[in-house]
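in:
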């Protein structure tokens, strides 16, 4: 999937969480690797700690548009975290809850948890 075109459409359509979950079970088609899933899992556990998550992973946005530092680093998960709370979030509340529940059920670790 091309990050620039296809992933943008997936985010605008608010299908990113479902796509991450559905494609995780097939290693050749996974959207996020383990480190990216870790960032997303930290964020989904408590979205109010968005700034702490970004800082921990070197993606703090001071003086830059939301998501630009993460994008410069090639981090889709960081980009999603950075855009939370903006007028154009990458993940809506329903998607965050979906991912939170998936992580709680061990989805990222097992590769077989479903929506």
């Amino acid at each position: 999937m091309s990050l620039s075109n296809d992933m943008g459409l997936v985010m605008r359509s608010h299908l990113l969480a479902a796509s991450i979950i559905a494609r995780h079970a097939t290693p050749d088609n996974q959207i996020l690797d383990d480190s990216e899933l870790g960032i997303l899992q930290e964020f989904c556990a408590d979205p109010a700690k968005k700034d702490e998550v970004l800082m921990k992973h070197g993606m703090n946005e001071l003086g830059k548009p939301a998501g630009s530092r993460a994008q410069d680093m090639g981090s889709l998960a960081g980009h999603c975290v950075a855009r939370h709370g903006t007028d154009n979030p990458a993940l809506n509340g329903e998607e965050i809850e979906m991912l939170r529940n998936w992580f709680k059920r061990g989805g990222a670790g097992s590769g077989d948890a479903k929506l």
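note: DSSP finds eight helices and no strands in the chain.
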